[in-house]
Design brief:
The protein is α+β, with helices and mostly antiparallel strands and 507 residues long. The protein has 4 domains: 69 residues, DNA Methylphosphotriester Repair Domain (3-Layer(aba) Sandwich); 108 residues, Arc Repressor Mutant, subunit A (Orthogonal Bundle); 158 residues, Endonuclease III, domain 1, CATH 1.10.340; 86 residues, Endonuclease Iii, domain 2. The chain has a 5-stranded antiparallel beta sheet. α13 crosses α22 and α18 packs across α19. The protein is globular and about 70 Å long. The chain starts with 24 loop residues before the first helix and ends in an 11-residue tail after the last helix. InterPro entries: Ada-like_dom_sf, Ada_DNA_repair_Zn-bd, AlkA_N, AlkA_N_sf, Alkylbase_DNA_Glycosylase/TA, DNA_glycosylase, HhH-GPD_domain, HhH_base_excis_C. Keywords: Activator, DNA damage, DNA repair, DNA-binding, Metal-binding, Methyltransferase, Transcription, Transcription regulation, Transferase, Zinc. It catalyses: Hydrolysis of alkylated DNA, releasing 3-methyladenine, 3-methylguanine, 7-methylguanine and 7-methyladenine. Pfam families: Ada_Zn_binding, AlkA_N, HhH-GPD, HTH_18.
């Protein structure tokens, strides 16, 4: 950070101040010249001769070394006066999940994701973080190269740019989706940030077919989409989810409106394709964010693997399935309920119980196709429900009711603006919820990369290689894999699939 409080870009061989996750200048240089997709989103290249900033994978001819600077985020490049490239489209870049390791920064980014600045001033974020506005701004500028307000503004404009390019949505709806209540303000902000009005960008890219919007969601390869679908398929809840050989479909309710989404892999690019069934443009940002979390699209697997592959078992797992990622959940309470249903039973049995739960207590959603027309029960619907009627033992029914009441009353929440320790502490305060269930919830509902259910029988067996390790020994073994233990869990579960098929798989 320079003396005037602005971020100093990397233009030489040294790292930026307080920027440990950004590659060095030489790494950035090599990555952009190689168009290495593994670095997509980890830095942005600003070209002084053209005034634009690009992704490392930009297909345009590489500019001369002396004409470029490197920034940690798109917002940092935008704050320095650069415009997003129209060819490589920085709006498609995955985020840098390495920032999750700085809890203060991660919490602030999570609050931004949850919309804290959508209708409130920048001071609201500082208040929520219990920091002064100056402290928060210094943190953001030092680590991200931009203030919270600049980061929020850049995200809004890049979302609008994607919707203008990839959908036929009216400009007025795109403005609403990007958080602008005034079309005039939207047009002015877009012109300033992108160098052209929204209508000119749309004309330049040509007409997009009408119908349901389809968005491109990029990731840093590899992604084992088949393995992700396989995991989700075994746990799919009939009436809510459907997984075939190449796609994931799901019922969602956003802003009170029910619709379907469909996610599939792009056969040529490191991207997923998200087909949206909603007509509410304002719901699109939250839907995109959830899909990215369900498929863990912002993971930096190169960093994860560098931490894990010192363990021979994990090195074998990584070699066999290098693209394994954390399979997230669409709704926190849904995952929590599924975790309780899966206590001490097989995956198939837990799925049967989940189907009964939805049939008995879930809402039917008219207007959706048969077989994908149910909503998972709300916490309020289950807080006092006679759950024994679906075949749950009395104690487990009481546990699920306790979880439902805690969620309904706000004592247990699934905000990502909390630490793993905070979530586990709140969850295990409930009757019937132990560390295993709490860590499983944290892994799938919150995507916490260090979640580790040490009491998991499968983990204990595969790590014991013929004998079952104790929970304490399993926990001790995992310390070398921090802060990426959740990825170790996925690889160990994969290694155990042939050895342990019938019982004790995670719910």
């Amino acid at each position: 950070m320079s003396g005037n409080g602005q971020y100093a870009p990397i233009t030489g061989p040294r790292l930026g101040p307080m920027q440990p996750s950004m590659p060095s200048h030489d790494q950035c240089e090599q990555a952009r010249l190689a168009r290495d997709a593994r670095f997509d989103g980890l830095f942005f290249t600003a070209v002084r001769s053209t005034g634009i900033y690009c992704r490392p994978v930009c297909p345009a001819p590489a500019p001369r070394r002396e004409n470029v600077s490197y920034y940690p985020t798109a917002a940092a490049a935008a704050a320095a006066g650069y415009r997003p490239c129209l060819r490589c489209r920085p709006e498609l870049s995955p985020d840098d999940a390495n920032f999750m390791q700085d809890h203060t920064l991660h919490r602030a980014l999570a609050l931004l994701d949850e919309g804290i600045l959508q209708e409130r001033p920048a001071a609201a974020l500082a208040d929520a973080m219990e920091l002064s506005a100056r402290q928060l701004q210094r943190l953001f500028v030092a680590r991200l190269g931009a203030t919270p307000a600049q980061l929020h503004a850049t995200r809004r404009l890049l979302l609008a740019k994607q919707l203008l390019t990839e959908t036929a949505l009216p400009v007025t709806e795109i403005a609403l989706a990007a958080g602008f209540n005034s079309l005039r303000r939207f047009n002015g902000a877009f012109l300033e940030g992108c160098g052209m009005p929204p209508s000119a960008l749309r004309r330049q890219h040509g007409a997009v077919p009408g119908g349901e919007p389809v968005l491109r969601l990029a990731y840093r390869p590899p992604l084992d989409f088949a393995a992700m679908l396989g995991f989700l398929r075994k746990r799919a809840i009939p009436g809510i989810e459907r997984i075939d050989e190449g796609s994931y479909q799901r019922v969602i309710v956003a802003n009170g409106r029910a619709s379907l989404i469909r996610v599939s892999a792009d056969p040529k690019r490191p991207e997923l394709r998200l087909q949206l069934g909603t007509s509410d443009a304002r719901a699109i940002p939250a839907i995109v964010a959830r899909v990215r979390r369900v498929f863990d699209l912002d993971a930096d697997l190169a960093t994860v693997h560098a931490c894990l592959d010192h363990e021979p078992l994990l090195a074998r797992g990584i070699a066999e399935r290098p693209g394994l990622r954390i399979p997230g959940g669409w709704d926190g309470f849904e995952i929590a309920a599924r975790a309780v249903l899966g206590q001490q039973v097989s995956v198939a049995a837990a799925t049967t119980l989940a189907r009964r739960l939805v049939d008995r207590f879930g809402e039917h959603l008219p207007g959706l196709p048969e077989g994908l027309d149910r909503q998972f029960p709300t916490p309020a619907a289950l807080a006092e429900a006679p759950l024994e009627g679906i075949g749950l033992p009395r104690t487990r029914a009481a546990t699920l009711r306790a979880v439902a009441r805690a969620c309904a009353e706000g004592r247990l929440d699934f905000s990502r603006a909390q630490t793993l320790e905070q979530f586990v502490r709140n969850a295990t305060a409930l009757p019937g919820i132990g560390p295993w269930t709490a860590h499983y919830m944290a892994l799938r509902a919150l995507g916490m990369p260090d979640a580790f259910p040490a009491g998991d029988l499968v983990l204990q067996q595969v790590l014991g290689e013929g004998r079952r390790l104790s929970e304490r020994a399993t926990e001790a073994r995992s310390q070398a894999w921090r802060p990426w233990r959740a990825y170790a869990v996925l690889h160990l579960w994969h290694l155990s699939e042939e050895r342990v098929k019938a019982t004790a798989l995670p719910p």
